[in-house]
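User: Hey, my collaborator sent me this sequence without any context and asked if I could get a structure. I don't really work with proteins. Can you help?
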Amino acid sequence: MRGGLSALLTLAATMAASQPVLDLPVDCVPGKSCTIQNFVDHVPGPDAGDFRCGPLSYDGHKGTDFALPTLREMHEGVRILASAAGVVRGIRDGMEDRRFEPADQDTIAGRDCGNGVVIAHEDGWETQYCHMKRGSLRVKTGDTVLAGTVLGEIGLSGRTQFPHLHLSVRHQNRVVDPFAPSGTATCGETGETLWKAPPAYVPGALLSVGFSDHVPDYEDIQAGTAARGAMPPDAAGLVLFGYAFGGQTGDILRLTIDGPEGTFLSEEFALDKTQARFFRAAGRRLTATHWPAGRYLGEVAMLRDGTEISRKTVEINIE
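Assistant: No problem. I've predicted the 3D structure and written it out in structure-token form, which is a compact way to encode the shape of the chain:
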């Protein structure tokens, strides 16, 4: 036991002396134009939890997921950047960008990362960048890169359900959480980090909100094509939707619409289970010949334990 403890202390001291300082690996702003959907799993066994003792992880997850709100942003192109200087140890390209389905299991066996890049750093450290967009890779094996070098773009390749970069950090083949390098979940801020400028921990938030003339299909919301920019006065319905991540059991999504004649709609939806991503929608059918002309302001708020943790608004004019 004493020898094992000594070895762990020696490993910790070696890591502290040689650990890299990481820049953000994405050309987006976490909490604004992208989100951190999942962190490294710190809970042994079948349960899961992130370094803050929150639910933003899943069993055995070994990296940090920087996610885009919808497929629209992926198609527009969001760059992946090297987090630290090093040498490209390996790459993979050519895998299709599409959501993983159980039927794909045999097809992607051994290639869960999808298109990706592995970079070797000093003293046994390495970073791995997964789920990159097919054809976007800009480096090759053996290239020397600096922090900030463009590696490619965020995609949907490999085992994934939404467009994101999965960043793995390893030291001597051991998974390291850049938010908690010691490997200990703290349930709070400790100042321990590999990040040069640590992104804020966001426990859940709205990804997008919008108006439609019907309850949108989930696929359209995920694609970023559900929202209508304008609607005719005789639209069959007037519906507000909110799309969010990090939902926990008991969270509430509150949807309100204020129209030219005052409050048009106000509804609340409580989550009955934890959900990584979800949407709720509420609205009315047209029962007259047309909607009252003017501005309609939609607001979606996400509440946890009675406290608002996220809010987004959207407006549309009906003339």
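In plain terms: The first helix runs from residue 2 to 18. You can pass these tokens on to your collaborator as they are.
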